[in-house]
Design goal:
482 residues, flat, mainly alpha
Length: 482
């Protein structure tokens, strides 16, 4: 007897007994066959389910691979593009360098040197790299050599080419001065019969402005004789030059005044009186005050400023320019330096009426102007205290007193009589000081109220009112810096 067992996926076993007769085999075989078919069907469906479950993973992997391939393609394309761009940039740089070399060759040849200078001026107007490259290629010496020509067109083309080469390039500025350009520029002015050519003079002033911005050039330009030329252009701009030349010359003088060694050459001209007389022109006043601020830093400069007639009324008038805070700050700086260094200047300031303007400035000025005004008031207060003590000591209070010769005087009979008289004199003197300060405070408050009313467009009869006078008469000076 043969027994066949089939176990598949938890399905029960089927037993086929061949010896048991044909009827049983015919009855069991269809059942067994059905079981086998069902089992095969279940296994197949499960296999199909596994394939369906794995299909998204395969698709994801294929998508990732496609993305990586696309990234590699993009990277290769970008590298190819970047290489092409680099090649194009290198090609452009080479072409630009060759063009600049051709320009320098034109400068070095006598055939078209004027065209070369004009080309340099054009190329260096806005291109900083071209300025550096042309300088390295040797464009500066032939341009300076063109200044020896008698042709005005050559001179102007050379001057403006040099001007553009020095814009924003300190190395070029130093190279131009070292090559002797300053002396040749001044020689152009001195060699001309009669008044200098206006266009040439303005181009030289513009060059001095640019070259003087470099600190190492300031002493060279100042000692070359450029300062008298700049002063002349500044004073005679209405006749011989434009407004731009006036501005450029004043700015060049400011640059030169930064170097202390240039103060004396400036004082040898009549620059200081001219600058003080020009104060009031709002177009140039702040720049003038900047020049004077540098001049008073030297002892000789302070002396030159102090001997100008009406210098302190002129400067004190600037303190009242509330519409120009920069001018106020610079004017207070000049007055502060002058008051700090010399007693005579302090006396002249007080006589010119500086105290009321300073008191007003401590209330209405900018922070910097207020600090400087307070400092000047402090200098004046210390001087005033010294003056009072010296005058009081001259009366005999501070001197050692000897014993009286006679004992019948009233002062000997009452030893406290002298001290009482001294206290009374001191009280009288202090009361006079208080009166003076109170008067100054009243004047300052009234002036401030007038300005406030004027700004508010109120009727002028509004001030000073009786109530306001009563308030100012009861004020004290304890909170004032004076």
């Amino acid at each position: 007897m043969a027994v066949v067992k089939c176990h598949r996926n938890g399905v029960g076993s089927a037993v086929l007994d061949r010896a048991g007769g044909g009827g049983n085999s015919r009855g069991l075989w269809p059942l067994f066959r059905r079981r086998i078919i069902d089992t095969m069907r279940c296994g197949g469906s499960r296999h199909r389910n596994d394939v369906e479950e794995r299909k998204p993973e395969v698709e994801q992997r294929s998508e990732c691979r496609s993305e990586r391939l696309s990234d590699l393609l993009r990277l290769s394309m970008s590298e190819t593009c970047s290489e092409k761009e680099e090649e194009e940039e290198v090609k452009k740089k080479v072409e630009t360098l060759e063009d600049l070399k051709r320009v320098v060759k034109r400068l070095q040849c006598d055939d078209d040197i004027l065209g070369g200078a004009k080309e340099v001026r054009k190329l260096t107007k806005e291109d900083s790299k071209a300025r550096t490259t042309l300088s390295l290629l040797g464009a500066i010496p032939p341009l300076i050599g063109m200044l020896d020509s008698d042709d005005v067109d050559f001179q102007i083309a050379s001057l403006y080419a040099l001007l553009n080469l020095g814009i924003g390039n300190d190395a070029n500025k130093g190279a131009i001065v070292k090559a002797g350009a300053v002396h040749k520029m001044l020689k152009l002015i001195e060699s001309q019969n009669g008044p200098p050519n206006t266009a040439v003079a303005e181009a030289i002033v513009a060059n001095f402005l640019g070259l003087s911005a470099l600190d190492s050039n300031k002493p060279i330009i100042g000692s070359s004789g450029a300062i008298p030329f700049l002063v002349k252009i500044l004073k005679n701009f209405e006749k011989t030059s434009s407004s731009q030349a006036k501005q450029d010359s004043l700015r060049a003088l400011y640059n030169l005044s930064i170097s202390p060694v240039n103060i004396l050459p400036m004082l040898e001209t009549d620059l200081i009186p001219f600058l003080l007389s020009t104060l009031g022109d709002m177009e140039v006043t702040e720049r003038i005050l900047s020049v004077l601020s540098n001049v008073v830093s030297a002892r000789e400069g302070r002396k030159a400023v102090s001997i100008v007639p009406d210098v302190y009324p002129i400067l004190i008038d600037v303190l009242n320019w509330t519409d120009s805070p920069g001018c106020q700050e610079k004017a207070t700086y000049i007055l502060m330096v002058m008051a700090h260094k010399a007693y005579g200047d302090r006396q002249a300031m007080i006589e010119a009426g500086i105290v009321s303007s300073l008191l007003e400035l401590t209330l209405l000025g900018t922070t910097l102007a207020q600090k400087r005004a307070s400092r000047i008031l402090e200098f004046l207060r210390v001087d005033k205290g010294k003056h009072v003590s010296e005058s009081y000591g001259g009366r005999g209070l501070g001197a050692p007193m000897s014993a009286p010769l006679c004992g019948s005087s009233s002062s000997q009979a009452d030893p406290n009589h002298q001290s009482k008289n001294g206290e009374e004199d001191e009280d009288n003197m202090m009361s006079e000081e208080r009166k003076a300060v109170k008067q100054l405070v009243q004047q300052s408050l009234q002036n401030n109220m007038r300005r406030i009313v004027k700004r508010a467009n109120l009727p002028q009869e509004f001030v000073p009112s009786d109530h306001f006078k009563a308030l100012t008469s009861s004020s004290t000076s304890k909170s004032l810096p004076f």
